[in-house]
């Protein structure tokens, strides 16, 4: 995994002024423990927040900075914080860190937790102060065993230093923090499924409303934020709103920086902290180095398996939510995948849809039955045993499982790459139809939505 940004002008040095998330990283990729973290200005933002800022001022600062969720949905963080109840009589509130990083082709949060665990803890400490939460949980993907070890050690270090626990920094504010490892379910990335799992229940999404800010963990007000989101908070508090906004490129509607990456058969697969608004072409050519010798770029996904495919001609899009939205999909997690010319799109989509079908919680019918149906059709097309009408059926499923048609966003994310793959590479799907296949029976044909 590449951690040092580089570009056409040779190495770009990470600095606090330009790389708020990653400037403290060690060149040897070892964790930054408490003494080194504090020597690099760690917990200075927390001390400022506790000594000089009212709790509501912290919320307003994060809101004014334009920080948005970095888990994929991109909801404004300050607005989300503002949904927590103002009633001072509610003395039990929770802050949850969503560290269940199960999105295929995404590993940004893992890097932060393994190498900068105190950055996450400081971000949670400031957030807890702002939200008046007395207890926090880091809900961690169970397979991230190294991250769990490093986070637990960092929590103990912070406790020993008086940065967690009772009467933090002499403020009278108490905050306990626990690392909770999950059992490895993609659906736990949905905040209410995560809450159910934390409570020991089956990881099904909950009906909303009520939203977690009103009724969350054990029925109490709860705020759920992503790892990278929380790691942005200390820099915003330390250096201010205007500085944070200035980090983004001109034209970007999203503020600050973002951990972005490229995987696949590129020369330099890796992860870099870059300003919002950088073009995908810069990310692909200048940072990832373009395709390896002997391969050409066929398609790419901008941010995880749940985002639609794009073509090489779309590389000039700016990497922020609106910029990627202009070319027809979502930015997602910001970690792109290059699909090379040797990959068959039907096989790739069959693999993806198998994953999504397996990870469905099974609660709602469109997702529970629709995703396995898509896998069955894709397997037939992959083997050259498809029938006339199969592609139309797949497109019908894309419509039936789209936004607003299912209980949560799992199925819409699952079928977005399917719809885009058929749009751009339909001939590869048509090649899987058997020459002598019979027409699909009427009952297997999709009903036109809205007809």
Automatic annotation (TrEMBL):
A Pfam family matched in the record: NADH_4Fe-4S
Catalytic activity: a quinone + NADH + 5 H(+)(in) = a quinol + NAD(+) + 4 H(+)(out)
InterPro entries: NADH-UbQ_OxRdtase_51kDa_CS, NADH-UbQ_OxRdtase_suF, Nuo51_FMN-bd, Nuo51_FMN-bd_sf, Nuop51_4Fe4S-bd, Nuop51_4Fe4S-bd_sf
UniProt GO MF annotations: 4 iron, 4 sulfur cluster binding; FMN binding; metal ion binding; NAD binding; NADH dehydrogenase (ubiquinone) activity; oxidoreductase activity; quinone binding
Keyword Oxidoreductase (UniProt): yes
DNA-binding is among the record's keywords: no
The protein's Enzyme Commission number: 7.1.1.-
Cofactors named for this entry: FMN; [4Fe-4S] cluster
Alphabetical UniProt keywords: 4Fe-4S, Flavoprotein, FMN, Iron, Iron-sulfur, Metal-binding, NAD, Oxidoreductase, Quinone, Translocase
Residues annotated as domain NADH-ubiquinone oxidoreductase 51kDa subunit iron-sulphur binding: 346-391
Family in the record: Belongs to the complex I 51 kDa subunit family.
Subunit structure: Composed of 13 different subunits. Subunits NuoCD, E, F, and G constitute the peripheral sector of the complex.
Protein's job: NDH-1 shuttles electrons from NADH, via FMN and iron-sulfur (Fe-S) centers, to quinones in the respiratory chain.
UniProt protein name: NADH-quinone oxidoreductase subunit F
Species of the source: Pseudomonas kairouanensis
Upper lineage: Bacteria, Pseudomonadati, Pseudomonadota, Gammaproteobacteria, Pseudomonadales
